[in-house]
Specification:
The mean pLDDT is 86. It is rod-shaped, with a radius of gyration of 32 Å. It has helices at 2-36, 95-115, 127-144; strands at 39-48, 52-53, 59-73, 76-90. Strands 1, 2, 3 and 4 form a four-stranded antiparallel beta sheet that branches. 50% of the residues lie in helices and 29% in strands. It is α+β, with helices and mostly antiparallel strands and 147 residues long. β3 and β4 (76-90) form a beta hairpin.
Length: 147
C-alpha cells in the first residue's frame, strides 16, 4: 500500500511541472493572439484644391473626399488612402459661362472617378474649364496624399 501511495505521489510530482508548462503555453498563446489582433482606424476627410481661373469663364475649385485607413498589427503601421468622391464649386461671369460650367464639370468629374486620377480628357468647347478643373484636382490630390 505504501508503495502504491509513493508511486502515485511520485507521478503527481512529475506531472505537476508538465501541467504548469502547458498552462503557461496556453496563456502565452492567448496573449499573442490578442497582440496579433489588428487595430483599424478609419478617418474620412475632405480636401480642396485652389480656385483656378478658367480664363474669362470663371473659377473652378475641386474638393476630394479621402478615406485614410490605418491598420496596426504587432506595432507595424500600414496606411492606405483612397479618394472616393469629387465635388467642388465654380464661379461664372455670364450665362454662357454658367452653361459651359454646368455641362462640363459633371463630365470631368465622371472621367476622374472612372480613371481614379487627374488624367482627364479635355472637353471640346470648354478647354479653359477643363484645364482649371485638372489643375485644381491635381492640387487636391497632392493634399489628399498628405492627409
Amino acid at each position: 500500500m505504501q508503495r502504491a501511495l509513493t508511486a502515485a505521489l511520485g507521478a503527481a510530482v512529475i506531472a505537476l511541472p508538465t501541467a504548469n508548462a502547458v498552462a503557461a503555453i496556453e496563456r502565452s498563446a492567448a496573449s499573442a493572439a490578442v497582440a496579433a489582433t489588428p487595430k483599424k482606424i478609419v478617418v474620412t476627410k475632405t480636401v480642396s484644391g485652389p480656385a483656378v481661373e478658367a480664363d474669362r469663364w470663371g473659377a473652378v475649385t475641386v474638393t476630394v473626399k479621402v478615406r485614410k485607413t490605418t491598420v496596426v498589427v504587432k506595432g507595424v503601421k500600414k496606411v492606405t488612402r483612397k479618394w472616393f468622391d469629387i465635388g467642388g464649386t465654380f464661379t461664372y461671369h455670364t450665362d454662357r459661362s454658367l452653361y459651359i460650367m454646368q455641362q462640363t464639370l459633371p463630365q470631368l468629374r465622371q472621367q476622374a472617378l472612372a480613371s481614379h486620377s487627374a488624367n482627364v480628357d479635355m472637353i471640346s468647347g470648354a478647354t479653359y474649364t477643363s484645364e482649371a478643373f485638372k489643375q485644381s484636382l491635381q492640387a487636391a490630390l497632392v493634399k489628399a496624399n498628405r492627409v
